């Protein structure tokens, strides 16, 4: 009995249905039944389904070569791997994570009622809504403009989104692959990774761990975590995060004025990440770059409800693109960003946006303040605990991150030391850029008891050590 098999214009045949003949069949692909081919008997189809797994194959599609340049999400998977290995060796250990920058406290009741109200509306004829504006609910844009920016920005300049990380990627889509970029070193890895993905860079240099085509602006204890802009060459785009992840540094007004003057002089655009702005406790520190004169012609601000209100899983953020910010040919940047928002995005969840409205009324703002106070108190506990042991500690005053300096020691060694001696998980600074080589980051987003217990263990292990640089496993 002969059966025709047709695939991509190639036909082949098979004389009998014994296993020995499967080698021939393997050269063929799934049978097509259609004009010009004969249907297989059901017995044959069943046999194929039962006995012959689909063949492994690759497509003819070339991989986007930019993705082969990426360093492949190395940091957190590697932390998870080392953590797992430790637990395999010490199954009884109870690890405390001061690693991840995710919130842990529940969403406060008034804000939560905004979310449930948003969900319940959808079950009513009057309240139901489907797709909304790609830029977000106008009422929420208005409230962000007034409540967060004191009406220094117009509601039309506010684009509501599903979070700051996603907006950074969409902003990169607007800029494309012909721009040059600068980042703080160390920095939140998304600026560099998205730059690589859209093709703004060459390959990474294995010895410096820096991508060709990116300007790394070193920020360390020696320069008060603010780059020496006299040494920084001009780039089109400058990513700048304050309060900073991972260093916990919040740029002063004078520093932001310097940054804006630098961008204006060079005709650059600053992408300012203010995701941690609500942690600023020092009233002299600006919560937005748009407080600085001249920033409306050279800056975009990315922001998020994630850390404000525990919305890391809810997903809600916003980006301000002032209408006065223009490309070299005079096109408003907001025009292109709006185009991306309406093409590669379809508006933030209507439920989340109702939650956002609740965040920004009086009751919601009071709840946010209490939530942030909780994390800032954790940060104080960690900061003072580490300081009392003689560690060199930065951040943690206007930010939820503590940046601990171990001069000359590899951050991965220090990570291992905290893990082995205290069962405390930290994040090695090297994961945020070469300048993080001898720092580790502690996150204050853990529950209070976990912070206390972590400090107790660290104090027990390191008590009496006055020169942490000399500590070894
Ligand atoms: C500096 C910075 N920007 C943005 C984000 C992501 O924010 P979102 O949850 O709004 O995407 C994070 C998250 O950790 C961050 O550290």
TrEMBL record:
Pfam families: Aminotran_1_2. GO terms for biological process: systemic acquired resistance, salicylic acid mediated signaling pathway. The keyword Transferase applies. Its cofactor is pyridoxal 5'-phosphate. GO terms for molecular function: pyridoxal phosphate binding; transaminase activity. The keyword Cytoplasm does not apply. Keywords: Aminotransferase, Pyridoxal phosphate, Transferase. Transmembrane segments: none annotated. It comes from the Eukaryota. InterPro entries: Aminotransferase_I/II_large, DapL/ALD1, PyrdxlP-dep_Trfase, PyrdxlP-dep_Trfase_major, PyrdxlP-dep_Trfase_small. Residues 95-458 form the Aminotransferase class I/classII large domain. Belongs to the class-I pyridoxal-phosphate-dependent aminotransferase family. LL-diaminopimelate aminotransferase subfamily. This is Aminotransferase class I/classII large domain-containing protein. It comes from Cyanidiococcus yangmingshanensis.
């Amino acid at each position: 009995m002969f059966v025709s098999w047709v695939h991509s214009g190639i036909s082949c045949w098979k004389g009998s249905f014994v296993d020995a003949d499967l080698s021939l069949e393997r050269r063929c692909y799934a049978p097509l039944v259609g004009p010009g081919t004969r249907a297989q008997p059901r017995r044959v189809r069943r046999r194929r389904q039962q006995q012959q797994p689909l063949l492994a194959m690759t497509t003819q599609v070339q991989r986007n070569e930019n993705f082969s340049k990426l360093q492949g999400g190395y940091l957190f998977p590697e932390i998870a791997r080392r953590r797992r290995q430790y637990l395999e060796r010490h199954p009884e250990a109870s690890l405390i994570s001061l690693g991840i920058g995710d919130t842990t406290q529940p969403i406060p009741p008034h804000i939560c009622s905004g979310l449930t109200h948003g969900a319940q509306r959808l079950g009513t004829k009057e309240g139901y809504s489907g797709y909304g504006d790609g830029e977000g609910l106008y009422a929420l844009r208005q409230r962000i403009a007034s409540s967060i920016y004191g009406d220094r920005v117009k509601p039309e300049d506010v684009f509501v989104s599903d979070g700051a990380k996603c907006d950074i990627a969409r902003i990169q889509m607007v800029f494309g692959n012909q721009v040059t970029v600068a980042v703080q070193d160390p920095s939140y890895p998304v600026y560099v990774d998205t730059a690589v993905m859209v093709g703004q860079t060459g390959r990474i240099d294995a010895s410096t761990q820096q991508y060709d085509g990116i300007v790394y602006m070193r920020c360390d204890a020696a320069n008060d975590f603010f780059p020496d802009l006299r040494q920084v060459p001009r780039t089109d785009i400058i990513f700048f995060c304050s309060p900073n992840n991972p260093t916990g540094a919040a740029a002063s007004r004078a520093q932001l004025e310097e940054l804006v003057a630098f961008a204006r002089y060079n005709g650059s655009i600053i992408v300012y990440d203010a995701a941690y702005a609500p942690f600023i406790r020092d009233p002299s520190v600006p919560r937005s770059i748009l407080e600085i004169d001249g920033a409306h012609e050279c800056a975009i601000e990315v922001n998020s409800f994630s850390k404000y209100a525990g919305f890391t899983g809810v997903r809600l953020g916003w980006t301000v693109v002032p209408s006065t910010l223009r490309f070299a040919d005079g096109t408003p940047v907001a025009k292109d960003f709006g185009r991306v928002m309406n093409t590669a995005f379809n508006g933030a969840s209507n439920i989340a946006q109702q939650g956002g409205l609740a965040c920004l009324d009086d009751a919601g703002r009071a709840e946010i303040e209490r939530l942030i106070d909780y994390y800032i108190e954790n940060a104080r506990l960690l900061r003072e605990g580490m300081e009392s042991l003689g560690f060199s500690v930065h951040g943690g005053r206007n930010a939820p991150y503590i940046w601990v300096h171990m001069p000359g020691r590899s951050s991965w060694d220090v990570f291992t030391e905290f893990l082995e001696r205290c069962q405390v998980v930290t994040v090695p600074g090297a994961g945020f850029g070469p300048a993080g080589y001898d720092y580790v980051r502690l996150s204050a987003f853990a529950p209070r008891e976990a912070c206390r217990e972590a400090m107790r263990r660290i104090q027990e292990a390191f008590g009496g050590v006055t020169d942490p640089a000399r500590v070894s496993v």
